[in-house]
Write a structure and sequence with these properties.
The protein contains three helices and eight strands. By secondary structure, it is of the alpha+beta class. A five-stranded mixed β-sheet has the order 7-4-6-5-8. The protein has a three-stranded antiparallel β-sheet with strand order 1-2-3, with no helix packed on it. β2 and β3 form a beta hairpin. The longest helix is centred in the last third of the chain and has 15 residues.
């Protein structure tokens, strides 16, 4: 069963409904881009836009440093640590986690087109992995999303978060 809005033309028909297509008339083929980051793209450093080999402009993804803070009712430290270790296993880009029995902070890099996309993914991280990693039923109480350049500028100026070393899950 096809679901569409009333009046929509079926996909792949080139705008000609099946019943009105002339006998023997062929469908026109169109090309589809392989993806924003595929192939030889030249990036404009200021806008983040690029051009592919055909000269078409598109937006390239960037790296975003995420700091996600969660908090809630006290939970046994062993369970919190085990849950965060499982989250690190499930989410390979996790850099470091710090935890106590009633709160935790997770830091990692996310690749996304823009800040909005990176924040949306970060806000889903805890909830989507709560069951599989058996994380405490805490809620997100803080989120910081900064681009790579800002992260490195903060580190160089000495007022940003310390570099994520050692990598892993550690108590506060």
């Amino acid at each position: 069963m096809r679901r569409a809005r009333p009046g929509d033309v079926p996909r792949g028909t080139g705008g000609i409904p099946h019943a009105r297509r002339a006998v023997g008339e062929e469908r026109a083929l169109t090309s589809v881009g392989a993806g924003a980051d595929f192939g030889d793209a030249e990036e404009d450093q200021e806008t983040g836009a690029g051009t592919d080999t055909y000269g078409e402009e598109h937006v390239l993804s960037k790296l975003w440093h995420i700091t996600l803070s969660v908090s809630g009712a006290e939970a046994p430290l062993k369970e919190v640590r085990r849950g965060l270790e499982q989250l690190a296993h499930d989410h390979p880009f996790l850099l470091t986690s710090r935890y106590a029995n009633d709160h935790a902070e997770i830091r990692y890099w996310e690749e996304a087109r823009d800040l909005h996309d990176a924040a949306a993914v970060a806000l889903r991280l805890w909830g989507e992995h709560r069951s599989s990693a058996r994380l405490p039923p805490w809620e997100i109480v803080g989120l910081e999303v900064i681009d790579r350049q800002t992260y490195h500028q903060r580190i160089a100026e000495g007022y940003g978060p310390p570099p994520a070393a050692p990598v892993g899950v550690h108590p506060f």
